[in-house]
Amino acid sequence: MLIAIDEHWIAPGVTSALKTQARPDESLAFNEMGDHRQRLEDLGEFRIAAMDAQGIDISILALTPTGTQPLSSEQARRLSSAANGTAMAVVSKYPIRFRALSTLPVSCPMHGYFASDEDRQKFTSANAAALYGLERVGPPYLVVGPAMTLNETIDPIGRELQ
Fold first, then answer.
1. Domain segments of the chain: what residues?
2. Angle (deg, nearest 10), helices 117-125 and 73-93
3. Which one of 11, 31, 55, 91 is least enclosed by Cβ atoms within 10 Å?
C-alpha cells in the first residue's frame, strides 16, 4: 500500500484572503503556474485518477502552506472551519482514498476556535493537524491526533483540547 502524506490542496477563500495580506506569501505564485490551481482545487475524481496513475492508494490531504496562520483571528477561525469542513466532506465521500490534516487558526485564541461544537468536531475528526512554520509561530510541527501527542512548545493547544 502506498500512502502519500501532506498532499496539498487549496481552498479558494483562504487563497483570496492570503492574497490581500500586506506581504502575501511568495509560495502563492506557485499555485497559479500551469494547471496547478485546477489540480490543487480538485478533491475528487481527477485527483483520484492522478493517484491511480501514480499507484497511490491513500492521500493525506493538507491545506497548502501557510494555511490560515497569517490571517486575523476572526478570518482564520472562519476560514479554518470552512477548510476543515471541506476536508472532512471529502474524507466522508471517499473514505478509502483520503484522510486529512486539520488546519488550525493559530492567530485565534484556542478557546475561541474550540468553543464551537462544530469546529471541535471538524478538528477532532481529522487524522492529525498541520502547523506551518512562520517567523511568529516557530518551526513546523505535525500535531498527531486523535490522541493528540503534542510538542511542549504548543502545549497550550493541548491543554485546550483535553
1. 3-161
2. 50
3. 55
pLDDT of residue 47: 96
Q: What is the pLDDT of residues 67-103, one digit of tens each?
A: 888 888 889 888 988 998 899 999 999 999 999 888 8
Give CA separation, 33 vs 9, 53, 132, in Å: 14, 22, 22
The CATH label, of 3.40.50.720, 3.30.1050.10, 3.40.50.1010, 3.20.20.140, for the domain at 3-161 is: 3.20.20.140
Q: What is the DSSP string of 33-85?
A: STTHHHHHH--SHHHHHHHHHHT-SEEEEEEPTTTTTTS-HHHHHHHHHHHHH
Sheet holding 141-144, edge to edge: 3-9, 58-63, 98-103, 128-131, 141-144
- Whole-structure pTM value: 0.73
Q: Tell me, what amino acid is at 14?
A: V
The CA-atom distances, in angstroms, between 78 and each of 32, 46, 69, 114 are 24, 28, 12, 12
Identity of the residue numbered 50: A
Burial class (CB in 10 A: 0-12, 13-18, 19+), 12: exposed
**Which triple of cell numbers denotes residue 36?**
496547478
**Whether 103 contacts 63, CB under 8 Å:** yes
